[in-house]
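Records of this kind hold a single protein each, on a pair of labelled lines. With that in mind, the following record should read easily:
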Amino acid sequence: MLICDQTGVMGKVTLQTIADRLGVSRMTVSNAFSRPDQLSAELRDKIMAAADELGYVGPDPAARALATGSARTVGVLLTDTLSYAFEDEFAAQFLAGIAEELAPTGLALTLLTSSGPAGSVQARDVPMDGALIYSCDETSSALSWLKRRRLPLVLVDQAPSAEYSSVNIDDRRGAELAAQHVVDLGHRNIAVVTSNVAGPVGLIGDLTVMEGGHTIRQRMAGWLDVLSAAGIAPTVVQVRDYGPSSGDDAAELLFDLPDRPTAVLCFSDATAYGVVRAASRRGVSVPDDLSVVGFDDVPLAGRMTPPLTTIRQDGAAKGRAAAAALLAAITSDRTGSRTPLEQRILPVELVVRASTAAR
């Protein structure tokens, strides 16, 4: 807001403007906004009333961050577009857990992507006190920028590091449980649908050429641990992402094989949904003709027809654990203390529903 001074010249409302109006110091007005406990309730109310009358909303956030050394926000670096955070059910659970943990601190949450318009690098330019690295390409330039800024970081769904705390689930164990379930049901012709945003897609004959991040590698290892021990060489399809459309595409490849698999292990529930949808379209009955297992146990799994057998991980618990680790890292950074790094691995469990049946 602009106001006129005694000469009629327009000027911007500042802390000093309010101080002059009330006959108090600029620091007293500043304390009313940033350190209210330093003032009596009566004086603070008087200052806030004057600020409201003059249309002053508070100190400039950028200036406050510069003065305090805190941006009062933490970032979450996503490997995908921002829409992923709102469209993917597991991502939504994860972010809700972060928000729950941050709520008592007053810290805000800023979503960052690995890419953006030319000249715009969010990981380089956005003020933040620290960041969570969530399921990102380990070679991402955005991750490199955050490291170069020497911000407190916590890795989530990433390979553990000697430099940062991390939060993962027991992906390998989860995949083992899924594979053992279909083996115990008598299936021997088993397919795996996994994901890789950068590597080759389609039917993979040579598993040694497969690429992928930490989560993909761990789940693939778990599936193969069980299947190899049972003497089963799975048919593997690698897709570009782990959404329903990729499950559709993978299923079409599998259904056109001369010897169609009787069970499919999927990287995610969303992928499994696409497989089940394609099966219905092709007249393949789930679970009579095809057993399907997902991973994550998002709400979609229970809504599907038939309801999906899957591996449950607690997305909200993962978000809370990640946020708590980041808050500890930020506190350690500010105080100069040496808080021990924590490499947390959260549990998983098999949830059996109607999408799997004995062969």
Observations:
- The longest strand covers residues 73-78.
- DSSP finds 14 helices and 15 strands in the chain.
